[in-house]
Amino acid sequence: MAAQMRGKVTIDLKECKGCGLCVESCPPKCLVLARELSPYGVHPAQYTGEGCTGCGICFYCCPEPGAITVYRLAAPRKTIAAEPGGAHAAAL
Amino acid sequence: MAGESDAGVVEAQAGVNGYELIHAKSPVFYDLYDRKSELKFQTHYCPGCGHGIVHKLIAEALHDLGLQDKTIFVSPVGCSVFAYYYLDLGNVQAAHGRAPACATGLKRACPDKMVIAYQGDGDLAAIGTAEIVHAANRGENITCFFINNAIYGMTGGQMAPTTLVGQKSTTSPFGRRPSNEGFPLHVCELLATLQAPAYIERVALSDNKNIMRARRAVRKALELQRDGAGFSLVEILSPCPTIWNLDPVEARRWVAEKMIPEFPLNVFRDRKPEVAVANIPQRAVADVLEIAQTQESRTVGRHFHPFENLSFKIAGFGGQGVLLLGQLLTEMGMREGLDVSWLPSYGPEMRSGSAHCYVCLSKKRIGAPLVSHPDVLVAMNEPSLRKFAPEVPSEGLIFYNRNSLPTDIPQPQAPVVCVPASEIADGLGSAKAANVVMLGALLEATECLASATALSVLEDKVKKINLLEIDRRALEAGRRFIDQHAHDEAVTQPDGFAY
User: Fold this and answer.
1) Predicted pLDDT at B299
2) Which of B253, B279, B305 delimits the end of a domain?
3) Residue B432 has pLDDT above 80, yes or no
4) Do residue B146 and residue B53 come from a single domain?
5) Within a domain: residue B159?
């Protein structure tokens, strides 16, 4: 079994309009547009299941408020000090 | 988050399998959108539209700064007109181009709230040019987000002031020609010539890096407003794939290749907060009206208002104090806790022409300030009496500024009280006080408002001491005239009224 990926991304089929901006933006290129149509008749974005680093770029490029949710593998030994940028500072 | 279980994104909760949640829908968005029953999960924006990204950046910044409950969002006319369906903030939707004007009023009335004006280029740079220039010039402590997509999106692709030279639109089908339609308007550069603004930056949604720059700019503008720095504007070059007839990825590239060369990304103004604070000239509405100071003089004894609604028409020559009499009644009603309205009407002839005004006093909300059948008509001259007396219903009351009615007019259906107010005022030393004599008579005859309130209003309105003395005597003279002539047996009661 492959090692756990650093990040993980989920796409909400009810929100995704299949614009493809996240696919274009994703630095490790781990998102694709699905072959299947979503209930709204578009090809929604889909995580290939490999390569996500949890950088969060796709979240900011996506025009829908909640279509993309990003997770990152918790690193218990590294404590990231809370910066003025809040929880998202690390993404920059 | 509650929204996620609705949206079906529950497979990886925070902490599950060692993953923690990094980015998810901001709580500043509603969980479900009520605009259309079949589209509760999606915004109405086209796939790839920049509005959604900017909404997201604003939502994230407001949440991180803990300002969600303190923010009023003014949405424009344009595609983002429905922002109030998505953002769980205080929402106001302004008339086309007027978001900065609305935001000015909101900010001055509620200086402790965050006020955001969100506008597109058709809204801000065309019909709303005056509003944005003057709001910026006054240095209002508001934040404007200006979404520039070089086109009118909502109405189907007409040319906007920001449309690029050569760019085709439905109203410039051969491309924009400077000789005919002028050059693209550079709003940031224009506003940066003004002295007052604290922060002006242009960013773009053209690629990952620029989106992150936009994120910082949005946050900075909001932080500056929070710190009271003054006017901030962030222009965001944003794709419009549908009208540009490009797919979302190409549209984003078009922003980078075509728009950025015309609208260079830059920070045009970036004042340090402390410098900016020294610059800011505004005062809140409460300060301007000195509400705190005059509160005491406004508290007057409780008066029983023997009506649900009472409407007045006050008519006469310009210069007889017709409009002022209406204002006095309105101010009195307001101080006695009633809903009031005052609607002046005067023709082009101001001095010695005819003037009239409508006043409504009500215990409920007033629907319209126009009065077609007044309960009380105050006719300060004969033409007004002739013209308006037939409008008064039989249960109404007419006050006429003479000893008796003219003999040649038909008897009005409403009773008429003749008060020679001008003569009485002349006797007191100033013909100008006729309106106050009439006010005294009106209060005595109708008991609609307390005469103590009239005195307190006059004390605040009349600055000259000798004039105030005349007004005081005029008020009393008007009351006494009614006492003596209308109710011969009336006795003055402890509350100051005779009945």
Assistant:
1) 46
2) B279
3) yes
4) yes
5) yes
As a whole number, mean pLDDT of residues B289-293 equals 63
Closest CA to B46 of A25, A37, A40, A19: A19
The predicted structure's pLDDT at residue A77: 52
Instruction: Give the nearest partner residue to B208 out of A7, A13, A25, using CB atoms.
Output: A25
Backbone angles phi, psi at B280, to 5 degrees: -80, 125
Hey, of B1, B11, B16, B19, which one would you mutate to test binding to chain A, going by the most A CBs within 10 A of its CB? B19
**Within this chain, do residues B379 and B232 fall inside the same structural domain, yes or no?**
no
What residue ranges do the domains of chain A occupy?
Answer: 7-91
**Sign of the dihedral defined by the CA atoms of residues B298, B299, B301, B305, in that order:** positive
Please tell me the distance from the alpha carbon of residue A69 to that of residue A58, in angstroms, as a whole number.
9
The answer to whether residue B350 sits within a structural domain is: yes
Chain B residues inside the 8 Å CB shell of A14: 7-8, 41-42
Q: pLDDT (tens digit, 9 = 90+) per residue, B102-129?
A: 999 999 999 999 999 999 999 999 999 9
* B317 occurs within a structural domain: yes
Token pair listed for B33: 């959108």
Work out the mean pLDDT of chain B and round it to a whole number. Answer: 88
Looking at residue B14, what is its pLDDT? 47
Residues B195 and B314 both lie in one domain? no
Range of the domain at B298: 292-485
B124 and B69, same structural domain? yes
Name the residue among B387, B382, B383 with its Cα closest to residue B401: B382
CATH node for A7-91:
3.30.70.20
- In 3-state terms, what secondary structure has residue B19? strand
Q: Where would I find the beta strands (DSSP E) of B161-215? A: 199-204
Q: Are residues B186 and B47 in the same domain?
A: yes
Domain CATH code at residue B232: 3.40.50.970
pTM passes above 0.90: no
pLDDT class for A67, splitting at 50, 70, 90?
very high
What CATH number is attached to the domain comprising B441?
3.40.920.10
**Is the same domain home to B165 and B270?**
yes
| pLDDT score of B23 | 94
pLDDT, tens only, A19-33 = 999 999 999 999 999
How far apart are the C-alpha atoms of B182 and B175, rounded to whole Å? 12
Q: How many structural domains does chain B have?
A: 2
Which residues in B lie closer than 8 A to residue A59 (C-beta atoms)?
Answer: 22-23
> What ipTM did this prediction achieve?
0.82
Nearest Cβ partner for A88 among B7, B50, B60: B60
**Model pLDDT for residues B42-77, shown as the tens digit of each residue:** 899 999 999 999 999 999 999 999 999 999 999 999
Chain B residues touching residue A64 (CB < 8 angstroms): 42-43, 52
CB neighbours of residue A58 within 10 Å: 26
